[in-house]
Amino acid sequence: MESHDCHSATHEYPHPFVHEVKMSRTQRIRGVILGSILFPLRVTLAVLFFIVMWPIARLRLVGLSKEERSRPITGWRSWLFHPIVLLLSRAVFFSLGFLWVKVKGRRADLKEAPVLVVAPHSSFLDMLVLCPTQLATVVSRSENASLPVIGALLDFNQSVLVSRKDPESRKRAVSQLTERLTSNGYWPQMLMFPEGTTTNGSALIKFKPGAFLSGVPVQPVLLQYPNNLDTVRWSYKGTTWSEVLWHTTSQLYTNMTVEFLPVYYPSQEEKNDPNLYADNVQKLMAKALGVPATDYVMEGRVPVSKLGGLSLPVELESPPREALSLLYRNGLGASDVEAALKRMIGRCQSRAQDSKASAEELASLLGLTDTETAVNICGLFSKDETVDLRQICLSIASISGFFSFKSLFHTAFSLFDNGAKAV
Asked: Where in this chain does the record put each Phospholipid/glycerol acyltransferase domain (predicted)?
């Protein structure tokens, strides 16, 4: 079977849409004590800085016509107000506990890379990355434009606004993006989160093609939070935004690392195929982070996994996912699991009339030293003492990212069609 090269070895199978802050009893007590003092102080300071930014952001655009606002802001409106808002933006996050930001690498200039692609997108607190990128222009939901302060800052930033509910709005946004990214330095540098939603950072979900439609060079930017407690993540299931704010402001400080990777120059093939371009940049960034590049996406408000042209709803605690997690927790690496899947497929193909196996045989095929884990895996897929190996290997293979859709499709046919041969 054909293997993907984007999967990195991890000891626990990553699920990007679930995150809970794991704290010991001592850490919880410490958090309550510090939070009772730091939370109200820090939030009050952040709100005050936001309120100060509001009129400054409005002043930058006062007196400009709609046509003038559709062009880049230049002259005194730029050099006077831009550094003030940049300083106040940093003050907001400093007050929330982000005392310093470690920056690695060099940010490319505008003509080198018109767009910065940032991943993983972990939280609303990721907006701190705008400070080391000099308030690069962003893409935001049009609904945010009506929010107090936030709307004024989006206008100040000359952000591209898009409504997810309006197809015409999306078309206009694509047209704006293309115009700006191909303006040869006329418009400021843009910053985009190609995942399109927040995750727990354990894997990169599929990149949306928006940042890659124009075929211009991009600079990948890695965003990480190297802290003892992972309080910043805000994903589909688990910690709420208010809990993120409470836990983060209850720490003495929170670290953030921003790493600028070398500019990625697309090939002609990638320029012609934005999805290929996006996938290749995703794999490059995943490799740099040491996490898998997956086909997970958010469709509406539902996490799904892309399998060929199908969108399969993600079960947050499905049997194959739990089985894979058990294997990683028992010390098997990614290459070990891939080899075990191939052994099971070989066993099924050699004995096509009998794909059932006991827990002892399953343990042997999986390379486990004890049968307890194999018994637990059997229990996930069968109520009997035996389990259908085809069901185990295909279901785990379909979510693991080890095999391509085409090879998985052909192997499934070979396993369930007694007259067929393996492809």
From this structure: 115-226
**Most confident option among 216-220, 326-330, 385-389:** 216-220
Strands, E assignment, 37-177: 101-104, 115-119, 137-141, 160-162
**Whole-Å CA distances, 412 to 56, 362, 419:** 62, 19, 13
**Exposure of 418 by Cβ count < 10 A (0-12 exposed, 13-18 middle, 19+ buried)?**
exposed
CA atoms of 153 and 139, how far apart (whole Å): 12
How do 256-260 and 190-192 pair as beta strands? Answer: unpaired
Quick one: which of 351, 335, 339, 338 has its CA closest to 388? 351
Q: Are 278 and 211 in contact (CB under 8 A)?
A: yes
CA contacts within 13 A on the Cβ side of 232: 26
State pLDDT tens for residues 43-84: 999 999 999 999 999 999 998 888 888 899 988 988 999 999
